[in-house]
Amino acid sequence: MKVNQAEFIISAVGPSQYPTDALPEIALAGRSNVGKSSLINRMINRKNLARTSSKPGKTQQLNYYKINSDLFFVDLPGYGYAQVSKSEREKWGKFIENYLLHREFLKLVLLVIDLRHPPSKDDQAMYSWLKHHGTPLCIVTTKADKIPRSKWQQHLKIVKETLGADKSDPVVLFSSELGLGKDELWQIIEQKIGYGADTAVEGQSETQPESAEQEY
Q: Each residue of 158-195: pLDDT tens digit?
């Protein structure tokens, strides 16, 4: 997908604020400071559209970013925030859960994991929850540039084994600094939202009459 336009739409605090464009939504879930904002910026070739918080765990909204007129990236509040009270964590958890379970336009969840470290208990819980509810997901391992290339596969193996990842789940090795994994991730997203399918069908229907006319 060639990104011609990307814009921040809203920080939604409830369903009444969710966009009504009826566009496919790709949600990003992960621990605070895992690099979700940097991932979004790399995917859309912008430096500062998605902004990182100076205080991990501070964001309590769903941040919506509209890409062209094709889809939304939805940045979910980061989990694993030690400085937030238990009651507040439970409140955010219900908020995220309701979105993931009931948002009809949600097509895929990107579970963002820091490649440098084994997935945390929160990462494992999120993966298990998504699998239990049959939510389509893609595991994206960020910060690959922070470790030697020779150790990438070793760390990927640890991520998969710690999560107990299903072999059918796509896993993307990603680096916001290098642009590694960007094209592969776009291909997965495009497939999930059916991007280009209508164009292909239209193209077939347009070419058939032309060839028939030439034969005639």
A: 999 999 999 999 999 999 999 999 999 999 999 999 98
Tokens of 63: 């941040």
Contacts of 215 (CB under 8 A, 6+ apart): none
φ, ψ at 185 (rounded to 5°): -65, -40
Express each pLDDT in 120-132 by its tens digit: 999 999 999 999 9
Per-residue model confidence (pLDDT) at position 123: 95
**pLDDT tens digits, one per residue of 49-103:** 886 655 554 557 899 999 999 999 999 988 866 556 667 667 767 888 999 999 9
DSSP string of the chain, one letter each residue: -----EEEEEEESSGGGS--S---EEEEEEBTTSSHHHHHHHHTT-SSSSPPPSSTT---SEEEEEETTTEEEEEPPPB--TTS-HHHHHHHHHHHHHHHHH-TTEEEEEEEEETTSPPPHHHHHHHHHHHHTT--EEEEEE-GGGS-GGGHHHHHHHHHHHHT--TTS-EEE-BTTTTBTHHHHHHHHHHHHTTTHHHHHHHHHHHHHHHHHHH-
| Measured distance CA(119)–CA(159) in Å, rounded | 6
Q: 73, 40 in Cβ contact below 8 A? A: yes
Provide the 10 A C-beta neighbour count for residue 43. Answer: 26
Residue 141 and residue 171 in contact, taking contact as beta carbons nearer than 8 Å? yes
